Predict the structure.
Amino acid sequence: MTSSLSSPATSAAASALPARWRARYRLTPWWAKVIAIWALSRIVTTTLILILASVQGDNPWTSAHPSYAQFANMWDGLWYNIVAVSGYPSVLPVTETGHIAENAWAFMPAYPMLVRLLMLITGLGWAPLAAFVSLAFSLGTALLFYKLMLRVLPASTALFSVVLFCVAPLSPLLQFGYAESMYLFLLTLALMLLLDRRYALLFPVIAVMAVTRPSGLAFALALGLHVIYRFVTRRRDPFPMRERMLAASVAVFSGVMGLAWLVAAWAVTGSPTAYTDTELAWRSAYIGYQELVPFTAWFQSGAWWLGEPLGFIVVVALILAFALFMFSPPVRRLGVDLRFWVASYALYLLAVFFPQSSTFRLLMPMFPLLGAIAVPRNLAYRISLVVLGIAGQWGWLLIAWGVDGADWTPP
């Protein structure tokens, strides 16, 4: 999919290049362009990481001045390492006050088990292999993301969407010992299959995706909305009975997989609330131990950070602003199905997540919105976004990844 439209700035920049360069660019395969973007972005990001690692002091995860592999496996990287080596506890740990403590059940098994398999095959340790697996999946995601955006946007805009993905403020996480890179790869593949209506192939992708990062329930909602939309619009877009049954089945399957990890934790520990109690342990440092009441955590967080009534007002304003953004022309260009996913995932976060410094990481699955941000073709606008993205990486590394004393800003 290509577009003949271009801004004066873009046209001027293109015409300023030597003719042979323009010809070579046009003849370069799309995958080579994506790989070049990815490689250049990883050079920039790795440089920033190494600079910060060189000044990192002693911390709970590493000694001072850690190597790249050690620095890339701090924070939750240790939990994934524990899962890979030791698995999950059959008896939930308890705090001195009798509440469930933080434990490995909060971290799903697909990513650490894959790294564990490579450890057994290669004989290498966790740290370098975890970083390698994430890095490899980041390249796979970049390639798939271009093809996904190409289904809804012109080629040049799809390519710039990849640029934004690769230089985004949280892109360092794509080469750390976290499951996000693997998850985004699977999510991008699932969204491509959804747009192509290849429902049968979604079953294995969803099965793995749902045990990589919590996603099954949100994707089930997106699939449900997809089924309803196709049924309502079946006169102009035929929706045969076979496709109806298959699409509905995969939606139900996604919902079941969204609950599978809760059932697994229950089966192993004997506690029906093992998983949710474990997740609640992480927010206890902010608001103490409480029951999980859907759609209250954002307001609790608003009150904790900003007080009342300002916290409530800000949360409502954020919800309204997001709703308006979802109906803006650039976002509408992404098509119905991608907006269904973004809206479903946003609703999932609103229902269960307590906002704190990990919020930005939890927003990463909404990355199809980068396609909407990439729509304006003005050269100065695009250069500014790249510069802001790289500056945001440095800011995020300083605030959320680097450890300074008793750090309370987990990534």
Notes: Residues 30-365+378-401 form one domain. Residues 1-14 have pLDDT under 50 and may be disordered. DSSP finds 20 helices and no strands in the chain. Residues 400 and 409 are 5 Å apart (CA to CA).
